[in-house]
Amino acid sequence: MASRYAGHAMGLGEAMKVAGLGCRSGVPVHEVLAALTAALAEHGLVGSALGALATIPIRAQEPALQEAARLLSLPLTVPSAEDLQQAETLTHSSASLDATGLACASEAAAIAAVGRNGILLGPRLVIGNVTCAIAICKEGS
Q1: Minimal CA–CA distance to 17: which of 42, 29, 80?
Q2: Would you list the domain boundaries of the chain?
Q3: CATH homologous superfamily for 16-134?
Q4: Which DSSP category does 57 fall into?
Q5: Rounded Cα gap, residues 132 and 111, in angstroms
Q6: 16 near 137, Cβ under 8 Å?
Q7: Sign of CA dihedral 76, 79, 85, 88
Q8: Strand pairing of 119-120 and 125-127?
Q9: DSSP 132
């Protein structure tokens, strides 16, 4: 899979937005969609505002994440391990650190997917067994 997503065509000044997702194995797609909807609403956004979904390598083949991407007609991107490690997260979860080696998988995936100049809109949101964080990057940043 590609390590970055260039985004859909955007107008000048429009920011690329990526939803980073973390989850437990076997999570149902409705939990993924609920977490996405809640995280977007938290920031006054709708699904059509997203350019991609992102996750970490160990979740890249998770059926619910792939199905959510398909239902939303968005690519599911997987940033490189190096980019994930360099991502600065707002949340520091010992459970995530133990399971993935990342302080927060969803935040790291979101920020790594938008690139070096990306920023998180806020800390990750937890809905059931899914975490979701939204990151943005201004075009040309």
Answers
A1: 42
A2: 16-134
A3: CobE/GbiG C-terminal domain (3.30.420.180)
A4: G
A5: 12
A6: yes
A7: negative
A8: unpaired
A9: E
Answering whether pTM is above 0.90, one says no
Which sign, positive or negative, has the C-alpha torsion 80, 118, 135, 105? positive
Nearest alpha carbon to residue 134 among 6, 15, 26:
15
Measured between alpha carbons, how far is 114 from 136 in angstroms, rounded to an integer? 6
User: Computed from CA positions of residues 78, 84, 87, 93, in that sequence, does the dihedral angle turn out positive or negative?
Assistant: positive
Structure tokens at 58: 């160990």
Cα–chain-centroid distance for residue 110? Answer: 4
In a structure prediction context, what are the per-residue pLDDT tens digits for the chain, which is 141 residues long?
333 333 333 444 567 899 999 999 999 999 999 999 999 999 999 878 899 999 999 999 999 999 999 999 999 999 999 999 999 999 999 989 999 999 999 999 999 999 988 899 999 999 999 999 999 986 554
SS3 135: strand
